[in-house]
Amino acid sequence: MNSTIERVIDDLSTVIFGKQQQIKLALACLFSQGHLLIEDLPGMGKTTLSHALAAVLGLSYQRIQFTSDLLPSDILGTNIFDAKEHTFSFHQGPVFSQVVLADEINRAGPKTQSALLEAMEEKQVTVDSVKHALPSPFFVIATQNPVNQSGTYPLPESQLDRFFMRISLGFPDKQAEKNLILGLNNRNYDDLPVRITTEQLSIIQTEITQVTLSNAVVDYILELVAFTRQDKHFVNPLSPRASIALSRAAKAWAYIEGRNFVLPEDVQAVFASVTDHRLGLNKDDSAYALKHVPVSL
Amino acid sequence: MLKMHNAGLINSALSFIFIIMSGFLFTEVPALFLAILISLSCLNLLIGKFYKKLNGKVANILAAACLIALFVVVGVSDTVKLFVSMMLLASTFKLLQARTTKQYQTVCLLVFFNLSTLYLFHQGLLETLLVSSLYIVNFAVLGYLDSPNSFKTANKQSVKTIFFALPIAAFLILFLPRLPAFWQLPGPKLAKTGLSEQVNPFSIAKLAESDELVFRVEEPNNTALQPPYYWRSLIHDEFNGNEWLISDILKSQQFNLTRKPVAPQNYVQYQVIAEPSSANWLYGLGYATSDNTAVFSTYNGLLKRKGNLNKNIKYTVKSGSLNNVVLSDFEKRLYTRLPGNVNPKTRTLSLSLAEKNTNEEAYFNALLRYFNEQAFSYTLTPTAMTGENTIDQFVFDNKRGFCGHYASTAAFMFRVAKIPARVVSGYLGGEQKQGSTLNVYQYDAHAWVEVHFNNAWHVFDATAVVAPERLNGSLSQLSELNESFNENLGFGLKRWSHFKAINWLRNHLEELDYKWTNWVLTFDQQSQQNFLKSLFGNKANWITPLVVLVTLAFVFLGYFFYSKRTPLSNEPLINEIEQLYRWANKRGIETDVTLTPLQNIANIKKQKPHLSSELAKFEQIIIEVRYQQLAFTQKRKTTARVLLNSLKTAK
After folding, report:
1. Which of B90, B119, B154 represents a domain boundary (last residue)?
2. Model pTM?
């Protein structure tokens, strides 16, 4: 494994115990320039993980707590009249940051959700028909509570598709939880050393695009995608955007594993995270596909 | 339009095939048409380089022009040649216009038909090998068209295909009933022959130009046949003043079934394998008869072909002597007939000789002496003689000639003396080959005289007196004649035979060709029956179909089960991975299709820890070839095979 990335993972592991897999997935998502959705119950460490991620990557960071009365202008910013200059000047909202943590995104109303998702897709913000470019790199890490909780506005499928990956952290194991109780984890994640600079990040992103994706693996991805389109089990078949995301995520995973070529194992590793939120409500959709699609030799 | 994968290579390979196929017609169609065909293929080679093809209009005009040229140059008289050339022309144009994979596939299909027609003209061993290699290349092109393999791999695959086809072909030849041809080919000229129905001394000079094989002789035991070998083919009984002909009387009698040939009492037996010929006469020594159903024995002791002339024919000959032949009065008159008042000088000469030697035998010897004492010489390039009294010119002025001159002259002189005589043409001698075979070539063609007295036909060969070396065997062995002979010889290895290596090569090639002819080309209905009889004895009648049916059933069953298995993949290493899986399954280790190869191998490793190192090497190859997309080189291929073998032999 790449030593820099290894150190990043080690650092993050001091904050979140026993979740190496999820940390790697989150990194893979960011390295593929995708936005990340973390879905879990309250108190599982979603916010902590996103905070820590921003910190080790040394990126500017803003947190937006979504509530039901949050307005689009609260996120994007607004034009304010300057009495001295007699002009309107634009005051940037919290979205003008390299890493935006949209906490509990499904608590806000659809209008506000769409405003953020548009910004995610276009990497720019339009206020009063003036375009304002967002900083680069621009990542959104959104967290959400499980949909069946009260007081939530579930994201529609079309908007879920904008998220490159969805991960959930899950309960920690006994030992990890014990350590948490004893307060052994690093709670000052703002003090984490910056392991990857912005330049290094862009180098990593370029190198990931050069990872070899062999025909065998492409065939496997195609088989998996085709299966979701043919089998009646699936409500929402995977789109070509999903298959592209799958290949990019597999490349990033291979890169994190320290290889410059993709194995079918990499596809399997990222498959659930990339496809579950696109496929529908059933949690076992991706596992069903993996269990039924033969791996192309 | 479909993007063609490596169109340049495919285009060149097909052009190359077309050029060679056109070359095969070298002996059959005029050079002009051949030049058209070859230049079209070269044109295709050229425009293929720039990846532009002829557009429709230009191609159509060109095709029309070539079609007209075809009819004018090749002519319509020989329909086989015409249609073969037309098909080749059409296929060439198809190639000129081919752009897409589909069109190239059509061209490949056409090439298969064109290649098969070549067998109409050439069936020799070398030609067969060449055509086979063209088949291989064509198969490879076809395979290459729809798989991105390297051309080398495609070629190997196609060689494999051909090799798999070989046992099937052998089986079909041996067991499939040999049906007669559904149609007869209208008179294709397959071989030049050295003989003709007229002995005109000027015609045989052309013979030495040809070193084509005429027939081979196989003796069961070496001592049975004694040289000189006078292989009789034709009897010419009528002299018209210029040339010796076969009279209608003789022709009708030869095929008159009421006069049966008499099987000789004392005979020697041997086998003759005759090459295809444009004429129906065959070859035998002395009074020859044959029991072969494809051979007709005349009462004169000559052999004729029945049926197809285009095939090699193998027949057994029983040869007896020409003694004890009593001529009827009619026959005596037939063999002493002469046109009046030609060659007066020779007539006078003959009559004066006859006055001194009243006895026929004495006259025979006196005439031999005459040819010996006078300044006659043997040449293959005689002076041409015209006019009515050609024999007079020859005997008194030129005195230079070859067998035709001497035979014509001698027969004429015997007849003037009222002694029954006839000109016989055939072949003299032959080249002794390894074992007990004798090869007779066109340049062994000869003409001599048979004279009847004392109730027997005697051979009178004036050529032998003039050039006694001619008797000792093949003409080609004579040093004196070699010079003029080689000048006349066409292209062939014969002229280089004084180089030891080339002579060795020639002998071996001929030996191979002999075996090919003997075992394959002459394998007819009779040989098949004999073969089946020797295999199954008297039960051949019902065992043969049984063998065929059982074999067919097995082939179909085998094919059925084979096709049930996953088909062989063109992707690199897939077959090897599948072999590994099958090996594991046989050892009771389950492999799961939804697991990746590496996961499955990890599983196998767990169950066979002592094979870990081999399996790890195999994993490495899988990673390199399948996932790093490195080339599946010969080295990796070999390693994979060696690993598989060591796994299979491991405990």
Report:
1. B154
2. 0.47
